[in-house]
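User: structure tokens for this one?
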Amino acid sequence: MIQCEDCEFFQRTTDGRPLLLCDPHKNIKEPECLAKLQLHKLATTEQSMERLMRAYEQMLGIYRRMQPMQEKMFEHMEREIRDAEEGDSWKFESYRDDDDDEDDGTRPGPNNPFS
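Assistant:
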């Protein structure tokens, strides 16, 4: 069985990790090479997943730090909206009073052409 270090499709990256350039559909030299290639791909996938998990955990940490600030912002925005609505309430009070005066509880009759 040939070792990967002795194969022409093997290289090391600058940080010392193995890089397998063999293609399982074209240039596998021995049946064991396929098993080694699968193990290498599995290890590479596992490293990628670990990096993704670390990035996700860091993102969650940022969200946890931002949560109190977001809550304060929402409270401030709600207070501003409530104050604006209270400030504009005088515009709508006259309409409400007019509507109450017009409604005397009687309905127009069927013979009334202006209803």
